[in-house]
Amino acid sequence: MLKQVTKQLALQGVRQFSVSQQNNYKVTVCGAAGGIGQPLSLLLKQNPLVTDLSLYDIVHTPGVAADLSHIDTKSKTAGFIGADQLADSLKGSDVVVIPAGVPRKPGMTRDDLFNVNAGIIKDISNSIAKNCPKALVAIITNPVNTCVPIAAEILKKAGVYDPKRLFGVSTLDVVRARAFIGHALGVDPQTVQIPVIGGHSGVTILPVLSQSQPLFKGNQDAIEKLTVRIQEAGTEVVKAKAGAGSATLSMAYAGARFAGSLLKGLNGEKNVIECSYVQSNITEATFFSTPLVLGKNGLQENLGLPKLNDYEKKLLEAAIPELKKNIQKGIDFANA
Ligand SMILES: NC(=O)c1ccc[n+]([C@@H]2O[C@H](COP(=O)([O-])OP(=O)(O)OC[C@H]3O[C@@H](n4cnc5c(N)ncnc54)[C@H](O)[C@@H]3O)[C@@H](O)[C@H]2O)c1
Ligand SMILES: O=C(O)C[C@H](O)C(=O)O
């Protein structure tokens, strides 16, 4: 009996090894010691497509890496600390996820983070351009609406920009919409499908409730209340944390889901669809989130605007000027 079990385990081991030979991706987390970075890295350590998990931060990464490296999954974990080690952390990366930078405190807007976080994104983007120009880059750092255009400009200046490889992570808006709709309807949130388009702040977050499946049932008042709740959900967490930061655990979950989808696309899986904030010609805003098909080179196909009802068209009208302003601010910063 024991022999049989041992043989079975050995066979499983062989199978796992052969899988790892095909699916060996390096993922770097920049800001890996932070409130998002640590749980995000923990979730990525469990992703079977990851063989190298590289943890970069300006503090604490040796400890975080030592801790995670004791988890019995196949990826190797390495910690890199300080600007001198950024290049080494990035070399060979297939996917770079960036939650580096300061979070909001009550009373602040995401745009108030610009002064600190814009410079962080600029520096990391410059290093990505030199060390892993082909990586898929997923920016979590706020203000996302502005940080993504900054990264695009920096990559352009270095001559390595590929709009199919740069993403702003708006997955948390989708995750929240699924949670709120699922609980309101009394269905498993995991079964809810809902596009959330636009950007990632206030009025630029546009949950397309008319397209949710199952359909969100409610009168216009309920629809408007739910829309505002999704738009203001980040602020709800900032207030509840009362000065201790913003969403970290739900963001880590959302970030791991988005990075996981990028990896599935790289790995040739079909029909991998996520909403994400990318360079876009779907609206007047040159960066905009819509549902995307992800593939071997990142963005494979932009599925465009979902069908919008009159209320959602008004929301879109309100979002565009704000988005354009946010985008221009990033372009100006990068070219100053
Ligand atoms: N896109 C979204 O949906 C979303 C959701 C939640 C939070 N955020 C944003 O994510 C960012 C991080 O939030 P958090 O709660 O993890 O903050 P945090 O302060 O807990 O962690 C940030 C980490 O970034 C590190 N860092 C600072 N400067 C760095 C640099 N130059 N290079 C590398 N690392 C650096 C810090 O040392 C820290 O470990 C914030 O800007 C926040 O607004 C975005
Ligand atoms: O609200 C924030 O500042 C963090 C994040 O953008 C969120 O939506 O939770």
TrEMBL record:
GO terms for cellular component: mitochondrion. The active site is at residue 200. Homodimer. It comes from the Eukaryota. The lineage of its organism: Eukaryota, Metazoa, Ecdysozoa, Arthropoda, Hexapoda. CDD domains: MDH_glyoxysomal_mitochondrial. This is Malate dehydrogenase, mitochondrial. NAD(+) binds at residues 31-37, 57, 117, 140-142, 251. Signal peptide: none annotated. The keyword NAD applies.
